[in-house]
Write a structure and sequence with these properties.
Layout: H1 2-18, E1 22-30, E2 33-40, H2 41-44, H3 48-64, E3 70-75, H4 87-105
Parallel strand pairs: 2-3
Antiparallel strand pairs: 1-2
Length: 106
């Protein structure tokens, strides 16, 4: 099983994440769980949750043949507060910045 997971990480996941400024390291494989460490944009981007749900989990579940496989993602380093914002906080920040920009242009 570990060989199949490592192959999926090396051949599919790593190139995909590296193309967008991220990285991945396989930490542990057990019959019901895979642990990965993400780095760069893969660990901190707003789309990271979507990458996990739509790419990483399905890929590893298919590679292992375990439809209920738990995928645990660990960050390489602790995140700055600005990287922990949820989508609503990000949108609020964007809207506030746009309002400041409009005020400066007036």
């Amino acid at each position: 099983m570990k060989e199949r997971v490592q192959a999926a990480v090396d051949q599919v996941l790593r190139p995909l994440l590296e193309a967008d400024g991220g990285g991945v390291e396989l930490l542990d494989v057990s019959p019901k769980r895979v642990s990965l460490r993400l780095s760069g944009k893969a660990a901190y981007s707003v789309g990271g949750r979507y990458i996990r749900t739509l790419v990483i989990e399905p890929l590893l579940r298919k590679a292992t043949g375990v439809p209920t496989l738990e995928v645990v993602l660990e960050d390489e380093v602790s995140r700055p507060r600005s990287m922990e914002m949820d989508a609503s906080e990000v949108m609020r920040e964007i809207e506030e910045q746009e309002a400041r920009d409009r005020a400066q242009q007036s």
